[in-house]
Amino acid sequence: MNAVQTYRYLQPSALRAAGLDLQTCGGPAANPRFFAGFLTAPAVAAAGLLAVAEVARTRYHQPVNPASLDPVVTGSRGRLRFESFSGCCGVYARMDVLPAGLDGEISGHGTTNVDVNPPLREALARVGGIEPLHVAVGPDDLTVSTMDGSVVERKVPLPGRWLRGFAEVHVLTAGFEPRAEIPAAEAAAFLRRLPAATDRSVLWAVPAGRTLRLTSRPAPGAVCLAGAGRLAALRGVLRHARTLRVYGPAVRAGSPAVPSTWELDTGALRVSLTLSPEPYRGFSGEGAALAALAGDDVVDDAELVGALLNWDPTIDVAALADAAALPDGRVRAALAQLGTAGRVGYDVADGAYFHRVMPYDAGRAERDNPRLLGARALVERGAVERDGEDATVRTDAEVYRVRRHPDGAYSCTCRWWARHRGQRGPCRHALAVSMVAAPVEVLS
Question: What residue stretches are annotated with the SWIM-type domain (predicted)?
Fold first, then answer.
């Protein structure tokens, strides 16, 4: 389902004599200038932005025409972040330009969509050597239309899957830990050994000395690599990188496929790709954020915590808890709720949340989630009958039994649970049971 948002660009983005001029569609004020200055590693930054743009225009599962969706850029204190999802929503790309990569001043803050058009991609591809690269993210004045140029008004289709993808990724990656770090030379050799882009198999990368070894089975310490060809966007940045770091959740023998993050660090910036558990699975359907969306008790906390966010590059949960007079656990639950509206993301390298604001209304993720809507409808109809830790859920045609396990997870007798076994979040019946439970419980 697409929501058509209208954005006004003052003019197309371009590489001019003074440097790279990225036109934005707005932010907290009309056409703000988040940053104006030079990037200290121009060739690296150009390659990184091209990687993010490549992911945005690619559908890795059942490839068709380019998606041509605009990446999102966030400016905050000492940091620029560029983010995108692939057209199939199974790859999340981000470039973080760190303080060492900026020679200028962050004079504002906000989040907006960036127009990365074909001429700009061609210009970025020509950046190399020590050529200076100046970035102005959003001009601060109005350009009047003349014969030489005019205001460009664009209608950009922003799929609801993007918002749901952002909501899911921050919940999933918040549970990641560093699993491996290898030098750039070994990383290059490892990427060269990967299967072809058409390979859809699920592999596992196991740390082996200074490199990674691929296996077909999970084991403790391994990182899932599903659809290895989806890492192709990293190759343009590889020659500039110092290290490749890999992040993922804990796994054991027999574990199902899980998401993972692959990050190249150049010193001045980091470029990362987060891959969904399997090539055909988009992050928008993973269901990791359903518990946060379903929790009514955290809505008030989220409003309070959201008002205290101040665009720091990373969010200090302990300091935020002190400012809000809330326990750390409630602050983390509030951040998860805020993430469902795209207001926060998660950086695995920093091990911390960061602040941004997406061009979506706050309730969009909830309204577009069919399982959540179905669960709320069941609760409203009184279809849930509690029986201690278990429950019966009655629909028009079927009766389902939902069981709560000692670890807090739920199982159900419905077809959804039988098919996915909890790997893609709770079914609507288990979600409905959690809504009538007290207190709100985290589902897995």
Answer: 400-438
Q: Taking 60 as the threshold, does the pLDDT of residue 66 lie above it?
A: no
**pLDDT tens-digit series, residues 124-161:** 777 777 777 777 775 333 222 222 222 233 334 456 67
SS3 194: coil
Topology classification of domain 2-142: DNA Polymerase III; Chain A, domain 2 (3.10.150)
Give the residue from 122, 47, 143, 52 showing the smallest Cα distance to 93: 52
The yes-or-no verdict on residue 399 having pLDDT over 80 is yes
> Does 3.40.1350 match the CATH number of domain 168-284?
no
d(CA 91, CA 158): 16
244: pLDDT strictly greater than 90:
yes
What is the CATH topology of the domain spanning 290-364?
Answer: Arc Repressor Mutant, subunit A (1.10.10)
Q: Is 223 exposed, middle or buried (0-12, 13-18, 19+ CB in 10 A)?
A: buried
Q: Is the pTM of this model over 0.70?
A: yes
Range list for CATH 3.10.150 in the chain: 2-142, 168-284
CA angle 412, 416, 420 (to 5 degrees): 95
- The residues pairing with 215 across neighbouring beta strands, listed in sequence order, are 204
- Sequence ranges of the chain with CATH classification 1.10.10.10: 290-364
pLDDT of residue 388: 80
Predicted confidence at residue 370, as pLDDT, reads 81
Structure tokens belonging to residue 356: 């941004």
- Phi first, then psi, for residue 119 (nearest 5°) are -60, -35
Give yes or no for residue 18 having a pLDDT over 60: no
Looking at residue 101, what DSSP letter applies?
G
User: How is the beta sheet containing 177-183 ordered, strand by strand?
Assistant: 110-113, 72-76, 79-85, 91-97, 269-275, 260-265, 243-248, 177-183
